[in-house]
Amino acid sequence: MDKTVNQKAWFLVLPVFAVVAFSAILPLMTVVNYSMQDTFGNNQFFWNGVGWFKELLDPSTDLGGRFLASLGRNLMFSAIILAIEVPLGIVVALSMPREGWTVAACLVILALPLLIPWNVVGTIWQIFGRPDIGLLGYTLNSLGIDYNYVSNEFDAWATVIVMDVWHWTSLVALLCYAGLKSIPDAYYQAAQIDGASRWAVFKAIQLPKMNRVLLIAVLLRFMDSFMIYTEPFVVTGGGPGNSTTFVSIELVKIALGQFDLGKAAALSLVYNLIILIVCWIFYTVMTNAGTERPEKKGGA
Amino acid sequence: MARIDLVDLAHSYGGNDAPPESFALKPVTMTWRQGGAYALLGPSGCGKTTLLNLISGIVTPSRGKILFDGADITPLSTQKRNIAQVFQFPVIYDTMTVGQNLAFPLQNRGVPKAEVEARVRQIADLLDLTFYLDRKATRLTADAKQKISLGRGLVRSDVAAVLFDEPLTVIDPELKWQLRSKLKALHRELDLTMIYVTHDQTEALTFADTVVVMHDGRVVQSGTPAELFEKPAHTFVGYFIGSPGMNIVPAAVSGHEARIDGHIIGLHRNYGVLPAGAKIEIGVRPEFVNVAAPASGLLSATIERIDDLGRARFARVRVGDAKFSARVPPAFSVSDDTVGLVFDPAHVHVYADSRLVEGVA
Hints:
The complex is a heterodimer. By secondary structure, chain A is mostly helical. Chain A is 72% helix and 2% strand. Chain A has helices spanning 9-35, 51-56, 62-95, 101-115, 118-128, 135-142, 153-181, 185-193, 198-226, 230-235, 247-257, 261-290, and strands at residues 37-39, 45-47. A two-stranded antiparallel sheet of chain A has the order 1-2. Chain A is globular. Chain B folds into 2 domains: 4-240, Rossmann fold; 247-357, CATH 2.40.50.140. Chain B is 24% helix and 34% strand. Chain B contains 9 helices and 21 strands. In chain B, strand 16 (299-308) and strand 17 form a beta hairpin. The radius of gyration of chain B is 24 Å and the shape is elongated. In chain B, 43% of the residues are buried. Classes of the chains: A mainly alpha, B alpha+beta. At the A-B interface, helix 8 and helix 9 of A face strand 6 of B.
């Protein structure tokens, strides 16, 4: 087939290119520029080469120590909330009604936490968990459980995790519910006729058919939890000590607290890179696991 | 394996209190013998799938009972009914291999492993799936997937009946023939009661010993393919089965004579007493009406067109307002628009309000 060659078409791409350049490429290049320099204020910059990057990866330095520790906390946080939210979301989706007005009611109730702005969620739980006036904190303490997220690391973590589960399980549940709804009735009828138990139906039909939406759910939840900032910042401010200081909180401390633009720029580049790489790995692994490449008929 | 009795079985999706005319399946009583091959034939929406789902237990009837070998199984769940069903579209368990798919119904019922393996091999062999046994089922074509579905339906040897709900819809025409004859062979080989739902008369007539024709929620006739062809009990059966369908034309009938357009056609039997006030029609298959050169004593008709079906030619003719299909004998060459029609009196039937009237010999 002959295609018309028309190089003028490139001009049509120009406006988009300009917008992307100003909104993404230039700011990103500024960050790259900062990451190679050190500043002591007064808009004075000194060339530092890859110095910050070397420090970042070296746990014995202050910057590297803080970065790697917060990265570890972040990974642990993501792992825990995924381990809770994904199974819980599936269970919620499975126990939702299939028809009638209750469906709409369930969907609205599930969607509510998703509609609340991040720092409002943080504030809700910050107050909810306070031992003096919070419903949760006060109740727990009067039951004899010594709960205080301000002073106890475990309590702080528990609060942040429960808050995230409360906020985001709905998303996983809604995605799973959509996946479940798309399974034709014939599958359930066939399973009934084949004498499948409830568990077998789940394993042989529902889980495989939810494969795709679960991939999306895990990706979204991982990215979001890996970039979490507002909620723990509002509730614990990263404390007690540094125990709930995640990478983003550390980044803001360095950039805005200490005004160390060079360090902060280097950290944010590495942070960005990690998120990109992890998402790529997730996506590649899970799409390959989910979709079978068509095999040639006749074997061999 | 079981004899299946339907006793006054009826179903309405609107509940038992819905008006009788709105029932998806109007009350039906019939018996299907063990080991038979039955086809439920009818157009879309005639209630055939509803009837099938009632038997398999996917739908619970509004009224009536279903007996397997005399035992009432109406309240039992699908799992407990011991029935197999194959659906219109392939149902495949994605994570399993072809072999595991076939073994699934047996494993769920705790059949010993050796027995499962032997049976899976046998069924795979019959359906030419042996080669694929260790493959993931999701990678196969729609044809192969439907074969797996068929296999899962046939794998249990102890089922009361195997139900097929238009199982060949997704199959290519060429393979359809093969699979249909395969099913027929499997029926002989496995000695299972099979009930096959379809709207395709060829499928029904080639597969089944007994064809149950349904129309508007009612069973209008149940019989062998030959009976349906030669003696349709209802005008619907007449024109639904056969290609082209039966000629149904209003006529005045008395004694041994039917009168169309002032012309008298002889009848084989005597129709002395016909229900008063009923709509009287005669029905005759195009195969039993021949086109001939116009002559006095023959009903004269105008040819509208001639369809060459390969094995035979049929003329579309008009007599007054009534339209006929009639066979054009191989030797006959059409020279004029006007022809005469020759009826075979043995195959002219009389219908009162669409139902067959048995004459007196």
